[in-house]
Design goal:
By secondary structure, the protein is an alpha/beta fold. The chain has two domains: about 230 residues, Alpha-Beta Complex (Amidase signature (AS) enzymes), CATH 3.90.1300.10; about 50 residues, no CATH class. Helices cover about 30% and strands about 10% of the residues. The chain has ten helices and eight strands. The strands form three sheets. It has a three-stranded mixed sheet with strand order 1-3-2. Strands 4-6-5 form a three-stranded antiparallel sheet, sandwiched between helices. Helix 1 packs antiparallel against helix 2. The C terminus is likely disordered.
Length: about 290
């Protein structure tokens, strides 16, 4: 049985790392029932999957957002998120929910409710955050892909720490509905962490697209994301902020040098007309 093999993988992993390492809310019995039934004939039929315990709501499943108060209250969601329905429609079998810091606000995954998640490459290191539980589970081989979300790096940081593929989709590419129209004024996005670009592209094909109630949506691509894998990239254009805070200036200079030398990209200096007042207002809107 599919869920039996996953249960054995988790059982094998637990002695190596502290309990509650990555999967904080397992749902193996429900997964076994789903795997034994008639799964949708989607591109990921029968593939085991995990949901980050932030967003990606599941009807009848516990939800904490990494918070002790919701854990203690045994909070249960009433409806599926649209992205959850799309994952299920693609044939994925959800085995449970993964660890995340409180409300996903930190670049590490050490919530008081469940404890610290460890990096499977080196348990003395962090997997990053806030999608650290998902990244740790994928890197450890529990599942080939897992749900994740990103506002200020919460997909990209754990992917970098754990040697995975972490794509933050364009604003409006994936729906937050029906519970929300957007998060962080469009800065946040939900998607996955995977082991390959191929899997990330195929999963984006499965979940992208507008849904009822969305305040805006990204324009559809001219062809599938999966079809872009391995296709010639053409000439690349890079936008670079050459002035600003000291550390960002250094980082962008290094990125520019690397891209031009290794990718044959070209660049053109440009400076948007944004005042300090506007930038301060944007920052305030995203943290309130």
């Amino acid at each position: 049985m599919l869920s039996d093999s996953i249960k054995q993988k988790i059982r094998d992993l637990l002695p190596r790392y502290p309990r509650k390492q990555a999967v904080t809310l397992p749902a193996l019995e429900q997964a076994r029932e789903r795997a034994a039934g008639d799964l949708p004939s989607g591109p990921f039929q029968g593939v085991p999957f995990l949901m980050k315990d932030l967003g990606g709501l599941e009807a009848g499943r516990r939800y904490t957002g990494g918070m002790r108060c919701l854990k203690d209250a045994n909070w249960t969601e009433r409806t599926n998120a649209y992205i959850t329905d799309k994952f299920l429609g693609a044939g994925l079998v959800i085995l449970g929910r993964t660890n995340t810091p409180e409300l996903g606000l930190l670049p590490t995954t050490e919530p008081d409710a469940f404890g610290a998640t460890r990096n499977p490459w080196d348990p003395s290191h962090s997997p990053g955050g806030s999608s650290g539980g998902s990244a740790s589970a994928v890197a450890a081989g529990i599942v080939p892909a897992a749900h994740a979300s990103d506002g200020g790096g919460s997909i990209r940081i754990p992917a970098s720490h754990c040697g995975l593929v972490g794509l933050k989709p364009t604003r409006g590419r994936n729906s937050f509905g029906p519970a929300a129209g957007e998060r962080w004024n469009g800065f946040s996005a939900e998607f996955v962490v995977t082991r390959s670009v191929r899997d990330a592209a195929a999963l984006l094909d499965a979940v992208a697209g507008p849904m009822p109630g969305d305040p805006y949506t990204a324009p559809p691509p001219p062809r599938s994301f999966a079809a872009e894998v391995g296709a010639p990239a053409g000439r690349l254009r890079i936008g670079v902020m050459r002035t600003g805070w000291f550390i960002f200036s250094i980082i962008t200079e290094l990125a520019l040098i690397y891209s031009v030398r290794t990718r044959g990209a070209f660049w053109k200096a440009a400076r948007p007309s944004l005042s300090l007042v506007v930038l301060t207002a944007v920052a305030a809107a995203n943290w309130t």
